[in-house]
Structure formats: structure tokens, C-alpha cells
Amino acid sequence: MVKLLRRAVLFLPLFFLLLPAHAQLPISARLDLLELHMSEAVKAERYPEFLRLLADFQSQGGRVGPELSYYEAVAREKAGQAVPASEAVGRFIAQAGREHPLYAQALLLYGRVEPAVRRIQEARQGLEPVLQALERGRARVRLQPATPSGPGAAGLAGAYDAGLSVRGSLAAGDGGWTSFGAGSGSGASQPPLPAWWHYGPDGRVSASHAFDLDRASMGQLMPGSPTSRSTLGIGVQPVFGPGVVVALAPGSDAAAAGLRIGDRITHVDGRELRAED
Prior knowledge:
This protein is an alpha+beta fold. It contains nine helices and eight strands.
């Protein structure tokens, strides 16, 4: 035992000398090492790893030259990220010039992603009126933060019948957006906003920032007409009182618009949600 302890004491300084060696590298050497790892990731077509290393490289002040821009474009294309891929290949073309050996491949890559970029841009243009309506709709909804000990705590604990769940996301691509109103129990119709829907007959409140539907389902909906809870990207339960946000699709525009898990919806269109709703 004594011999083992002596050996451990002898090797301990060497261990601590080796442990922080990478962390003690000068920043230029760390960036060189990251570039080496990125090169290996590209050669092995490990594109998600390349993008992670690239983000690390940039966070440490690394300069993204023409070749890194080109390989970022390749990685973004593989990941189905047409707009970032187009931006990256555009940077490469601007930086590298026609004499660069990757120039022709970059042009081909640009030609592959540009149609998807155009579709996204066209879809976004079509979304503008809907997005404006969405902002108006959100202005008419008052959210109140909730805690697990407050109203709706069961929803925060994950009970299905006590919260608001956001399934959909505002996606611009091959699909499209349309604004829809929804009828209330009294038969009155809300303005055709892609925001909040109030249901009267079953005492529930439902809302939507997004649809998670195929085109056939979308085609069955009419602006200003009542719709059912199952067709909405967001559903509010329980029947009684305010709804609590218990689930939110990561990266969705509902999240970007400000909804957070734990929020309580207390008012819709200036009207307080009560038990009789």
C-alpha cells in the first residue's frame, strides 16, 4: 500500500501537467486544432460535427475563410438548411473569386439550393398579412406567468387535461399559411386571425399560431368559419379557468412569439376566461 501511494505521488504532478495542456494552448493553436478537426469531419462527411466545430471556432474568434464558407454551405445543404447554405456559398463566391479550385462546385451548389430559397422567400411574402394579423391577435391576449404552486399546477406536472400544448410551428417551405376565424358558442364569428380561437359549446378555449396539417386538411378550412380543436396546432384545456402552457414545440414561432411553458392564458380578446367558459 505504501509503495502504491508513493507511485501515486510521483505520477500526480505529471497528471496535473498533462490535464490542462490543451486548455493552456495559445488561442492561435486552439483555432488551428479546431480547423484540423473540421477538416477531418468534412473528409469523413460528418457534417453535424463540422457545424458544431465551426460554431466553436467562430465563438473563439476564428476567421471563416473561403474554404470554411464552402464546406459550411455543403453541411447546411446536407442538413436541409437552404437559406443558410445559400448565404454561406454566397460568402464563398464573394471571397474566393473565379480562380479558386472550388469555384465551379460552389456554383453548382448554389444552383441546387436556390430554388428552395426562392420557394421559402415566396412563402414568406405570402405570410406577411398573416404575420401582421398574428401580432394583432397576440396583442389581444394577456398572458400571466404561473408557478407550479399556482393555478394550473396539475398542468405543469404534465396532466393532459390541464394545459395548453403547442404542436405546430410556423414553417415556410412547400406548405403555406392561411388565416382562419372560428365561431363561438353564441354563433358570432371572430375576425379571421391566425391567433386565438374561443369555443363556447364545450366550454373550452383553443388557439393556434400554427397548423400541423397536410394540404388536404388545409383545403377543407374556410376563412372566418368555425373549426374543430383537432385541426389546430395549439389546444387549451381544461374546461374551467385559465389554460397553462405545458408543452411548446422547440424552435417554433409560437415559442419565438413569446409563449413560454408555465404561462397562463387569462384573457382572450379582452375577455376573462371564467369557469362557465
